[in-house]
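Data availability excerpt. The first of two example chains:
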Amino acid sequence: MNDVRHIDAAERLIRVLDALGIAYALGGSLASSIYGMRRFTQDADITVKPFLPVADKFFDMVKDEFYISEEAIQEALRSHGSFNLIHFETSFKIDLFVQGPSEFEQQLLIRSRRVKLTDTASREVCVVSPEDIVLLKLRWFRDTGGTSERQWGDVMGVLGVQGDALDYEYLTGRARKLGLDELLDRATAEAQA
Protein backbone atom coordinates (compact mmCIF):
# COMPACT_ATOMS: atom_id res chain seq x y z
CA MET A 1 0.00 0.00 0.00
CA ASN A 2 1.82 3.10 1.19
CA ASP A 3 4.89 3.71 3.24
CA VAL A 4 4.28 2.09 6.63
CA ARG A 5 5.36 5.35 8.28
CA HIS A 6 2.53 7.17 6.47
CA ILE A 7 -0.01 4.64 7.69
CA ASP A 8 1.43 5.04 11.19
CA ALA A 9 1.03 8.84 10.99
CA ALA A 10 -2.63 8.44 9.99
CA GLU A 11 -3.21 5.94 12.78
CA ARG A 12 -1.62 8.32 15.32
CA LEU A 13 -4.09 11.03 14.35
CA ILE A 14 -6.97 8.56 14.43
CA ARG A 15 -6.01 7.58 18.00
CA VAL A 16 -6.42 11.25 18.98
CA LEU A 17 -9.84 11.39 17.29
CA ASP A 18 -10.87 8.22 19.14
CA ALA A 19 -9.55 9.55 22.46
CA LEU A 20 -11.63 12.71 22.09
CA GLY A 21 -14.74 10.88 20.86
CA ILE A 22 -14.65 12.61 17.46
CA ALA A 23 -16.50 10.49 14.91
CA TYR A 24 -14.55 10.13 11.66
CA ALA A 25 -14.20 8.13 8.44
CA LEU A 26 -11.02 7.74 6.45
CA GLY A 27 -11.58 8.40 2.75
CA GLY A 28 -9.60 9.43 -0.29
CA SER A 29 -6.98 7.28 -1.93
CA LEU A 30 -6.27 5.29 1.22
CA ALA A 31 -9.90 4.12 1.25
CA SER A 32 -9.96 3.38 -2.47
CA SER A 33 -6.72 1.42 -2.04
CA ILE A 34 -8.34 -0.70 0.67
CA TYR A 35 -11.39 -1.50 -1.49
CA GLY A 36 -9.78 -1.49 -4.93
CA MET A 37 -6.37 -1.27 -6.52
CA ARG A 38 -3.57 -0.26 -4.20
CA ARG A 39 -1.61 2.82 -5.13
CA PHE A 40 0.83 5.17 -3.47
CA THR A 41 -0.64 8.37 -2.12
CA GLN A 42 1.05 11.32 -0.48
CA ASP A 43 -1.83 12.28 1.77
CA ALA A 44 -4.88 11.02 3.63
CA ASP A 45 -8.41 12.41 3.71
CA ILE A 46 -10.52 12.08 6.84
CA THR A 47 -14.09 13.34 7.30
CA VAL A 48 -14.85 14.31 10.91
CA LYS A 49 -17.96 15.33 12.78
CA PRO A 50 -17.77 18.96 13.95
CA PHE A 51 -15.84 19.02 17.23
CA LEU A 52 -15.84 22.64 18.44
CA PRO A 53 -16.21 21.70 22.16
CA VAL A 54 -12.92 19.75 22.07
CA ALA A 55 -11.05 21.79 19.43
CA ASP A 56 -8.55 23.17 21.95
CA LYS A 57 -7.83 19.68 23.33
CA PHE A 58 -7.44 18.35 19.79
CA PHE A 59 -4.89 21.06 18.98
CA ASP A 60 -2.95 20.41 22.19
CA MET A 61 -2.84 16.65 21.53
CA VAL A 62 -1.49 16.92 17.97
CA LYS A 63 0.68 20.07 17.91
CA ASP A 64 3.88 18.33 19.01
CA GLU A 65 3.67 15.69 16.29
CA PHE A 66 1.96 17.54 13.44
CA TYR A 67 2.27 20.97 11.89
CA ILE A 68 -1.19 22.48 12.31
CA SER A 69 -2.81 25.90 12.37
CA GLU A 70 -5.17 26.63 15.24
CA GLU A 71 -6.81 29.35 13.12
CA ALA A 72 -7.39 26.91 10.25
CA ILE A 73 -9.11 24.48 12.63
CA GLN A 74 -11.46 27.19 13.89
CA GLU A 75 -12.26 28.41 10.36
CA ALA A 76 -12.97 24.87 9.13
CA LEU A 77 -15.26 24.22 12.10
CA ARG A 78 -17.16 27.46 11.43
CA SER A 79 -17.53 26.89 7.67
CA HIS A 80 -17.70 23.07 7.48
CA GLY A 81 -14.51 23.35 5.46
CA SER A 82 -11.20 21.57 5.73
CA PHE A 83 -7.76 21.98 7.24
CA ASN A 84 -4.59 19.96 7.06
CA LEU A 85 -1.96 18.56 9.32
CA ILE A 86 1.56 17.59 8.30
CA HIS A 87 3.35 14.91 10.27
CA PHE A 88 6.74 16.34 11.30
CA GLU A 89 8.64 13.06 11.08
CA THR A 90 7.40 11.89 7.66
CA SER A 91 5.97 15.05 6.01
CA PHE A 92 2.79 13.04 5.39
CA LYS A 93 -0.20 15.35 4.91
CA ILE A 94 -3.63 14.60 6.31
CA ASP A 95 -6.63 16.66 5.23
CA LEU A 96 -9.52 16.81 7.71
CA PHE A 97 -12.91 17.67 6.22
CA VAL A 98 -15.50 18.87 8.71
CA GLN A 99 -18.76 17.11 7.94
CA GLY A 100 -21.37 19.37 6.40
CA PRO A 101 -25.15 19.24 6.80
CA SER A 102 -26.01 17.54 3.48
CA GLU A 103 -27.65 14.13 3.57
CA PHE A 104 -24.73 12.61 1.64
CA GLU A 105 -22.12 14.00 4.05
CA GLN A 106 -24.13 12.70 7.01
CA GLN A 107 -24.21 9.24 5.41
CA LEU A 108 -20.41 9.11 5.06
CA LEU A 109 -19.95 8.54 8.77
CA ILE A 110 -23.09 6.49 9.31
CA ARG A 111 -22.20 4.03 6.52
CA SER A 112 -18.48 3.81 7.35
CA ARG A 113 -16.90 0.43 8.05
CA ARG A 114 -14.26 -0.67 10.52
CA VAL A 115 -11.28 -2.21 8.74
CA LYS A 116 -7.55 -2.69 9.25
CA LEU A 117 -5.32 -0.42 7.16
CA THR A 118 -2.71 -3.15 6.76
CA ASP A 119 -2.54 -6.90 7.28
CA THR A 120 -0.34 -6.34 10.32
CA ALA A 121 -2.35 -3.50 11.90
CA SER A 122 -3.33 -4.13 15.50
CA ARG A 123 -6.62 -2.24 15.33
CA GLU A 124 -9.45 -1.35 12.99
CA VAL A 125 -10.29 2.20 11.91
CA CYS A 126 -13.44 3.72 10.40
CA VAL A 127 -13.26 3.91 6.61
CA VAL A 128 -15.79 5.39 4.18
CA SER A 129 -17.87 2.60 2.58
CA PRO A 130 -16.82 1.37 -0.88
CA GLU A 131 -20.01 2.79 -2.41
CA ASP A 132 -19.37 6.21 -0.88
CA ILE A 133 -15.72 6.26 -1.96
CA VAL A 134 -16.89 5.60 -5.53
CA LEU A 135 -19.30 8.53 -5.25
CA LEU A 136 -16.70 10.82 -3.68
CA LYS A 137 -14.16 9.96 -6.38
CA LEU A 138 -16.73 10.47 -9.17
CA ARG A 139 -17.71 13.83 -7.69
CA TRP A 140 -14.05 14.88 -7.50
CA PHE A 141 -13.53 13.67 -11.07
CA ARG A 142 -16.53 15.71 -12.27
CA ASP A 143 -15.66 18.81 -10.25
CA THR A 144 -12.11 18.90 -11.62
CA GLY A 145 -13.26 18.81 -15.23
CA GLY A 146 -13.15 15.05 -15.76
CA THR A 147 -9.43 14.99 -16.35
CA SER A 148 -8.02 13.21 -13.29
CA GLU A 149 -6.88 9.78 -14.39
CA ARG A 150 -6.03 8.95 -10.76
CA GLN A 151 -9.60 9.58 -9.58
CA TRP A 152 -11.06 7.60 -12.48
CA GLY A 153 -8.55 4.81 -11.89
CA ASP A 154 -9.51 4.67 -8.22
CA VAL A 155 -13.20 4.36 -9.19
CA MET A 156 -12.41 1.59 -11.68
CA GLY A 157 -10.32 -0.21 -9.06
CA VAL A 158 -13.10 -0.23 -6.46
CA LEU A 159 -15.76 -1.26 -9.01
CA GLY A 160 -13.51 -4.00 -10.38
CA VAL A 161 -12.45 -5.48 -7.04
CA GLN A 162 -15.76 -5.09 -5.16
CA GLY A 163 -18.00 -6.11 -8.09
CA ASP A 164 -21.30 -7.62 -6.97
CA ALA A 165 -20.47 -6.99 -3.30
CA LEU A 166 -21.39 -3.32 -3.82
CA ASP A 167 -24.85 -2.08 -2.86
CA TYR A 168 -25.85 -0.95 -6.35
CA GLU A 169 -29.30 0.17 -5.23
CA TYR A 170 -27.74 2.67 -2.82
CA LEU A 171 -24.98 3.56 -5.28
CA THR A 172 -27.29 4.34 -8.22
CA GLY A 173 -29.87 6.15 -6.08
CA ARG A 174 -27.27 8.37 -4.43
CA ALA A 175 -25.48 8.97 -7.76
CA ARG A 176 -28.76 10.24 -9.22
CA LYS A 177 -29.25 12.64 -6.28
CA LEU A 178 -25.67 13.93 -6.67
CA GLY A 179 -25.94 14.31 -10.45
CA LEU A 180 -23.36 11.58 -10.97
CA ASP A 181 -25.58 8.97 -12.62
CA GLU A 182 -24.11 9.38 -16.11
CA LEU A 183 -20.56 9.09 -14.79
CA LEU A 184 -21.50 6.05 -12.71
CA ASP A 185 -23.13 4.41 -15.75
CA ARG A 186 -19.97 5.06 -17.78
CA ALA A 187 -17.72 3.71 -15.03
CA THR A 188 -19.87 0.62 -14.46
CA ALA A 189 -19.95 -0.18 -18.17
CA GLU A 190 -16.18 0.29 -18.43
CA ALA A 191 -15.54 -1.91 -15.37
CA GLN A 192 -17.70 -4.71 -16.81
CA ALA A 193 -16.11 -4.56 -20.28
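And the second chain:
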Amino acid sequence: MKKFKLHNLYLIFLTLFICNCTSTIESRIQNNPQLYSALTGPEKKAVSKGLIIKGMSQDAVYLAWGRPSGVIERNSYGKSIEKWRYSSLMPVVNQNFLYNDYHYYHHYDHCSPFYHSTNVGYVPYTSAVVEFENQKVTSWEQEK
Protein backbone atom coordinates (compact mmCIF):
# COMPACT_ATOMS: atom_id res chain seq x y z
CA MET A 1 0.00 0.00 0.00
CA LYS A 2 1.33 3.45 -0.94
CA LYS A 3 1.99 5.92 1.80
CA PHE A 4 -0.24 8.94 1.77
CA LYS A 5 2.13 11.88 1.44
CA LEU A 6 1.72 15.11 3.37
CA HIS A 7 1.81 17.25 0.21
CA ASN A 8 -1.19 15.30 -1.14
CA LEU A 9 -3.14 16.22 1.98
CA TYR A 10 -2.08 19.85 1.56
CA LEU A 11 -3.34 19.86 -2.05
CA ILE A 12 -6.69 18.42 -1.00
CA PHE A 13 -7.18 21.10 1.68
CA LEU A 14 -6.08 23.85 -0.71
CA THR A 15 -8.55 22.64 -3.36
CA LEU A 16 -11.41 22.51 -0.85
CA PHE A 17 -10.52 25.99 0.41
CA ILE A 18 -10.47 27.46 -3.10
CA CYS A 19 -13.72 25.77 -4.07
CA ASN A 20 -15.52 26.99 -0.97
CA CYS A 21 -14.16 30.55 -1.04
CA THR A 22 -14.37 31.31 -4.73
CA SER A 23 -17.65 32.91 -5.68
CA THR A 24 -18.51 33.99 -9.21
CA ILE A 25 -21.36 36.08 -10.57
CA GLU A 26 -22.87 32.97 -12.14
CA SER A 27 -22.66 30.96 -8.92
CA ARG A 28 -24.22 33.77 -6.87
CA ILE A 29 -27.08 34.08 -9.37
CA GLN A 30 -27.60 30.29 -9.41
CA ASN A 31 -27.56 30.14 -5.61
CA ASN A 32 -29.94 33.12 -5.26
CA PRO A 33 -32.48 32.92 -8.12
CA GLN A 34 -35.09 34.83 -6.09
CA LEU A 35 -32.74 37.80 -5.67
CA TYR A 36 -31.89 37.86 -9.37
CA SER A 37 -35.50 37.57 -10.55
CA ALA A 38 -36.48 40.55 -8.36
CA LEU A 39 -33.97 42.86 -10.10
CA THR A 40 -34.93 45.40 -12.74
CA GLY A 41 -33.81 44.95 -16.35
CA PRO A 42 -30.91 47.44 -16.10
CA GLU A 43 -29.80 45.86 -12.81
CA LYS A 44 -29.77 42.37 -14.39
CA LYS A 45 -27.62 43.66 -17.28
CA ALA A 46 -25.18 45.35 -14.90
CA VAL A 47 -24.99 42.33 -12.59
CA SER A 48 -24.26 39.94 -15.46
CA LYS A 49 -21.29 42.17 -16.44
CA GLY A 50 -20.10 42.68 -12.84
CA LEU A 51 -20.92 46.41 -12.96
CA ILE A 52 -22.45 48.79 -10.44
CA ILE A 53 -24.98 51.48 -11.40
CA LYS A 54 -26.44 54.35 -9.41
CA GLY A 55 -29.69 53.40 -7.69
CA MET A 56 -28.83 49.69 -7.72
CA SER A 57 -30.12 47.63 -4.77
CA GLN A 58 -27.85 45.99 -2.21
CA ASP A 59 -28.96 42.57 -3.47
CA ALA A 60 -27.81 43.51 -6.98
CA VAL A 61 -24.42 44.68 -5.68
CA TYR A 62 -24.04 41.41 -3.77
CA LEU A 63 -24.78 39.44 -6.94
CA ALA A 64 -22.37 41.56 -9.01
CA TRP A 65 -19.43 41.82 -6.61
CA GLY A 66 -20.07 39.30 -3.85
CA ARG A 67 -19.99 39.60 -0.08
CA PRO A 68 -18.13 42.69 1.16
CA SER A 69 -15.08 42.38 3.41
CA GLY A 70 -16.55 44.94 5.80
CA VAL A 71 -19.64 47.09 6.34
CA ILE A 72 -19.89 50.49 8.01
CA GLU A 73 -23.35 51.77 8.97
CA ARG A 74 -24.24 55.30 10.05
CA ASN A 75 -27.18 57.68 10.15
CA SER A 76 -26.83 61.11 8.55
CA TYR A 77 -29.68 63.63 8.82
CA GLY A 78 -32.24 60.85 9.19
CA LYS A 79 -30.89 58.87 6.23
CA SER A 80 -29.47 55.39 6.60
CA ILE A 81 -25.95 55.37 5.10
CA GLU A 82 -24.03 52.15 4.59
CA LYS A 83 -20.58 51.57 3.05
CA TRP A 84 -19.44 48.21 1.79
CA ARG A 85 -15.67 47.70 1.59
CA TYR A 86 -14.10 45.10 -0.67
CA SER A 87 -10.56 43.88 -0.05
CA SER A 88 -8.02 42.27 -2.35
CA LEU A 89 -4.58 40.83 -1.71
CA MET A 90 -1.44 42.46 -3.04
CA PRO A 91 1.68 40.30 -3.40
CA VAL A 92 4.73 41.67 -1.60
CA VAL A 93 8.15 40.25 -2.43
CA ASN A 94 10.70 40.04 0.37
CA GLN A 95 14.22 39.23 -0.78
CA ASN A 96 16.77 38.14 1.78
CA PHE A 97 20.48 38.15 1.12
CA LEU A 98 22.28 36.41 3.93
CA TYR A 99 26.04 36.30 4.25
CA ASN A 100 27.05 32.71 4.77
CA ASP A 101 29.40 33.29 7.68
CA TYR A 102 30.41 30.14 9.50
CA HIS A 103 29.79 31.73 12.90
CA TYR A 104 26.23 32.86 12.13
CA TYR A 105 24.87 30.79 9.25
CA HIS A 106 26.98 27.64 9.29
CA HIS A 107 23.84 25.49 8.97
CA TYR A 108 23.34 26.63 5.34
CA ASP A 109 25.16 24.47 2.86
CA HIS A 110 25.44 26.51 -0.35
CA CYS A 111 28.04 26.76 -3.05
CA SER A 112 28.48 30.52 -2.82
CA PRO A 113 29.17 32.72 0.20
CA PHE A 114 25.78 34.40 -0.27
CA TYR A 115 22.43 32.78 0.23
CA HIS A 116 19.52 34.36 -1.65
CA SER A 117 15.89 33.61 -0.90
CA THR A 118 12.70 35.21 -2.11
CA ASN A 119 9.52 35.02 -0.09
CA VAL A 120 6.17 36.25 -1.35
CA GLY A 121 3.61 37.41 1.16
CA TYR A 122 0.22 38.99 0.65
CA VAL A 123 -1.09 42.20 2.16
CA PRO A 124 -4.82 43.04 2.16
CA TYR A 125 -5.89 46.43 0.83
CA THR A 126 -9.22 48.13 0.07
CA SER A 127 -9.85 47.70 -3.66
CA ALA A 128 -13.45 48.98 -3.82
CA VAL A 129 -16.05 50.84 -1.75
CA VAL A 130 -19.80 51.10 -2.44
CA GLU A 131 -21.96 53.64 -0.60
CA PHE A 132 -25.68 53.13 -0.12
CA GLU A 133 -28.34 55.55 1.01
CA ASN A 134 -31.59 53.88 2.07
CA GLN A 135 -30.27 50.61 0.59
CA LYS A 136 -29.64 52.06 -2.90
CA VAL A 137 -26.23 52.78 -4.46
CA THR A 138 -25.30 56.47 -4.36
CA SER A 139 -21.59 56.16 -5.22
CA TRP A 140 -18.76 53.69 -5.62
CA GLU A 141 -15.02 53.57 -6.13
CA GLN A 142 -13.12 50.70 -7.67
CA GLU A 143 -9.42 50.24 -8.29
CA LYS A 144 -8.58 49.04 -11.80
